[in-house]
Design goal:
This protein is α/β, with parallel strands linked by helices. The chain has two domains: 4-184, Rossmann fold (3-Layer(aba) Sandwich); 206-341, 3-Layer(aba) Sandwich (Rossmann fold), CATH 3.40.50.1220. It has helices at 17-33, 46-51, 71-85, 96-109, 228-248, 256-260, 291-297, 314-317, 326-341, and strands spanning 4-7, 10-11, 14-15, 37-42, 57-61, 89-93, 112-117, 119-122, 128-134, 139-144, 151-155, 173-175, 206-210, 251-254, 281-285, 302-307, 320-323. The chain is elongated. It starts with a strand and ends with a helix.
Length: 344
């Protein structure tokens, strides 16, 4: 077993912050194993990104087939590198791309895969024991990989400290060749869209989320509004939750009920069928706290619930609870934060 691999996810040639957490976890593991930490960077600007990473070596490939991190060429290349170098473990951030890449490659090389890993313990036989949440986060499962082969781990977001910034010479970069050519790839990237200026849910230290209760907005919709409840909720997300999020530097989240009702896009959904998050602070506004939603945010370090129903399940999970109208409480919180910062 020659090294620990860490796949570093990039977007438009920049490192995704959760990849720094994966490098931090990899550094702790390599210190125990006394093996090198090898970063894998594929796609646009890979060599420049790799030279600044806190790793002992970086394997990079900038072939145009890897632009956009399409699954087939990236997984084929990762599987090839695993077969050639026989690493002790392969780590990746628990993003959508990280999970699908490791699942695809682990199956290709016949290796074990653990997802949502929140703790890693090296056993005496060399296997890695991890703890991961199950049953919507109500229980913690302890599982070990197979000995004698690379163990693939997708890491739970915000479960590991990020790697320390590199202060010495640039990371040695080794260029590798792609495995698949253009004609071997079944998928094609047609368009990439992004929301400029928004904080990513997966990276956010603070999240402000809204639920079905957002439709209780007292603001009156215009006469031409096709649906009063949807307009009120959308208006509430934009004019009530967003100002609070801006003051806190937070991301905007939502429950499935809010997304299904058309109040906000699916990209903001937190829960079992949305994103699993672990921020330092999670503020749930008008969210009852169904078990599916709790599965996506119960590991938050501090949970604040705002709801008019004192019996709402979210209060049993929350560290702090405010019983009342979110459309009175949230603006008051926003005003207090602005006053404290001297902004208004």
């Amino acid at each position: 077993m020659s090294a620990v691999f860490v796949w570093v996810e990039t977007v438009a040639g920049a490192v995704v912050p959760l990849s720094q957490e994966a490098l931090g976890a990899g550094a702790a593991l390599t210190a125990e194993l006394q093996v090198p930490l090898v970063a894998l960077v594929f796609g646009e600007n890979a060599a420049a990104v790799a030279s600044d990473l806190a790793a002992d070596e970086a394997l990079v490939c900038e072939d145009e087939t890897l632009t956009g991190l399409r699954l087939e060429p990236c997984a084929a290349l990762l599987a090839k590198l695993v077969r050639e170098r026989q690493p002790h473990a392969v780590l990746a951030p628990g993003t959508i791309r990280g999970r699908e890449l490791l699942a695809f490659s682990a199956a290709d090389v016949g290796a074990s895969l653990q997802t949502e890993a929140g703790d890693i313990v090296l056993q005496s036989d060399g296997t890695l024991q991890v703890e991961r949440p199950v049953y919507a986060g109500k229980l913690t499962l302890t599982a070990s990989g197979s000995s004698g082969s690379a163990q693939f781990l997708c890491l739970r977001a915000r479960a590991f400290p990020p790697a320390a910034p590199r202060v010495d010479a640039d990371t040695p970069v080794t260029r590798v060749e792609p495995v698949l050519g253009k004609n071997d790839i079944a998928t094609k990237i047609v368009e990439v869209t992004s929301s400029a200026g928004e904080v990513s849910l997966g990276d956010a230290a603070t999240i402000v989320s809204g639920g079905r209760g957002m439709s209780a907005n007292p603001a009156q919709p215009p006469p031409d509004a096709p649906d009063s409840a949807i307009w009120k909720a959308q208006h509430g997300f934009e004019h009530t939750l967003t100002p609070l999020a801006i003051e806190l530097g937070a991301a905007i989240g939502a429950s499935r009920a809010a997304v299904d009702a058309g109040y906000i896009d699916y990209a903001h959904q937190v829960g079992q069928t949305g994103k699993v998050v672990s921020p330092d602070l999670y503020i749930a506004c008008g969210i009852s706290g169904a078990i599916q939603h709790q599965a996506g945010m119960r590991s938050s370090k501090t949970i604040v619930a705002i709801n008019r129903d004192p019996e709402a399940p979210i209060f049993r999970l929350a560290h702090y609870g405010l019983v009342g109208d979110l459309y009175e409480i949230v603006p008051a919180l926003t005003a207090a934060l602005r006053a404290r910062s001297g902004a208004g």
